Structure formats: C-alpha cells, structure tokens
Here is the input.
Amino acid sequence: MKEITFLKQNEKKWTDYEKKLNDKEKIDPSQLTNMFVELTDDLSYSNTNYPQTRTQAYVNNLASKVHQLVYKNRKESGNRFLSFYVYELPMFFSKYYKQLFYAFLIFGLAVVLGVASQMYDDSFVRLILGDHYVDSTIERIKNGNALGIYGEENQFLMFIWITLNNIKVSFYAYVLGLLTAFGTGFMLVNNGIMLGCFFTLFFQYNILDKALKVVWIHGAFEISAIILAGCAGIVLGNSFIFPGTHTRLESFKTAVKHGLKIIIGLIPIFIMAGFLESFVTRYTEMHIALSLSIIGLSFAFIIFYFIVLPFYYKRKFQL
Here is the structure.
C-alpha cells in the first residue's frame, strides 16, 4: 500500500486519538485499551513499510503517548486481569463477530448433518463415538441409568481431566487455523457431527428430554467455548489469505496474538464447564427447574458477554 493511502485510511482515527490524548479529561480504560491495540498494529505496519518517514515518526509518537498513559495509570485502572476480561476480550469479538458467526454456522450445520446421518443409519454413531462407548451407553439405557457415566469417576480427577481435555480441543481448533480456515472448520464439523449423532441416539431410545436437561448443564459452556475457539482459528486462518490493508506477515502476526488471547481468555469458561460436568451433571435426577435454571443462566452469560457486550462496545467506542 502506498504511504499516502495508508495516511488517508487512518487520518481520522489518529486525529480522534490525538484529540483525546490532549484532552485533560480522563480516558475511559476501554477506550485506552482499544487505542493501544490499534496504534500498536499501525506502528508495526509503518515500521515495516515506511521506516524513517514522517508517517512512522508520527505514529510512533502517538503510540508512545498511549503506552505511557497505560503504564502511568496502571495502578489507577486496576488489575490487569480484570481489565482484560472486562474490556480487552469482549473488544476482540467486536472486531471478529463475522468469524464467530461463521464458526457457529459451520458447527450448527455439522450438528444437523450428524442428526440426519444417525437417523438414516443408526449404526453411524459407532463410527463417530466408537463401539465401546455406544455399547456401554445402550447398556446403561437398558438398566435405567442412561447418563450414569457422569457419576462413575472420582469428581476431582474427572474435573482435572475434562478441563485439560477441553482446553486441548480449543487449542487444536485455534492451531488448525494454520491450515487456513478449512483446518479449523474440520475440527468444528467433527465436533458438531459428534454432538448431533450423540443426542439422536438418545432420541432413538426415547430419552432425549432427559439427556438434554442433563448434558446441557455443562454443555452450554463447553460447546459455546469450542465455537468461540473456532472463531479464533478462523481469524488465524483468514489472516494470511485475506490480509486486508496490511502485509500478509503483519496480518498473520496480529491474528496469532489476538487468537491466542482469545484462547487464553476462554480458560475460565472451560474450567466452569469442567466443574459443572464433574460436580453437578452427575446428579441426573435433579429437579428440572434447577437444571433449566443452570442451563439458562449459562447461555445468558455467553450471549451477554460474547455477543451483547462486544456490540455495545462497538457502538459506544466506534471500534
């Protein structure tokens, strides 16, 4: 990109930032975070493409002011951990809501495919989940304890294993973005088909209602987080295919950084999913009102934090 084009594309944004920095009023922490992220990306691009120019010097000066303000106000702005989860993580999704929608769409279509495949051929689930798992599940169904598997293991050990496994799955979904978005898409399709045929198996044995109210106690967080991790993988996969106004290398570096932060940010979600699956889901006979309350609150949190809040920030701060 020519330097003059780069200037025209960013002139208004830089002018707004400079005005805010010169204003004596305190800048909102969320605005400051967004300014820091944007200017860091712009500075990286200008350092690569326009070194030793007035453009590079101007952006560097502006970025330095923001950097100083961030560290000067670090004690005033509170805990970095809190700032990350209150502002920074939702702001990523305000930029990548399209990728999140694509991840959700791919996963949803895969679930439909899993349902249709199992309905057409009731042995399909064995290809996906394995004979041992299916046979043991059918045996539990016949014994009247279809979901008893959740109460068979030590709670603490189960919590550790499930949480680590869920984090591993999310990391794979992200890393497979190195194979372009198709790599992450494959992971989403695989998990979606698995979920679809899993629930269809219970439908075929007339206990779908019980399976839904039990499994989604932890599934609301677990499945949502897999889709969110898929979003990070698609961001990574698209970065060097559709670099936009940046070079492919700079776009890739930014996507790696942002995607990794998303995955790290999802760890508490997987911890909560692991906790619910290990310590709560095992109570398969809990009252339906309690079960639906847990599921409803879980989905409400996911929708608010990853969809509503990012759109609120997007409108408020014009991200």
About this structure: The mean pLDDT is 86.
